[in-house]
UniProtKB/TrEMBL annotation:
Keywords: Disulfide bond, Repeat. Transmembrane segments: none annotated. It comes from Caenorhabditis latens. This is Nematode cuticle collagen N-terminal domain-containing protein. Residues 4-56 form the Nematode cuticle collagen N-terminal domain.
Length: 85
């Protein structure tokens, strides 16, 4: 009876190892495929959002009036030599 139990356990263990040897590479390949699909999707998304951003900036430039150049913030603090005389 003990030999039968040992034989069944050894057979089950061998079968489990064989299933594992077959399953792990398949899982690895599936994960790599999903990884590649995600990277492709991200690059497509990035290209689309960059194009949309460029279009929005072009529209903003055409709609908004040109602004006056900003005056230097510290120009009124700096005294030139001619102003001192």
């Amino acid at each position: 009876m003990e030999k039968f139990i040992v034989g069944v356990a050894a057979t089950a263990s061998t079968l489990a190892c064989l299933v594992m040897v077959i399953t792990i590479p398949q899982l690895y390949n599936t994960i790599l495929e999903v990884h590649d699909e995600v990277l492709d999707g991200v690059s497509v998304f990035r290209m689309e959002t960059d194009a949309a951003w460029t279009d929005m900036m072009d529209i903003q430039i055409t709609v908004t009036p040109p602004s006056k150049p900003r005056k230097a913030q510290f120009s009124n603090v700096v005294l030139y030599k001619r102003e001192l005389l």
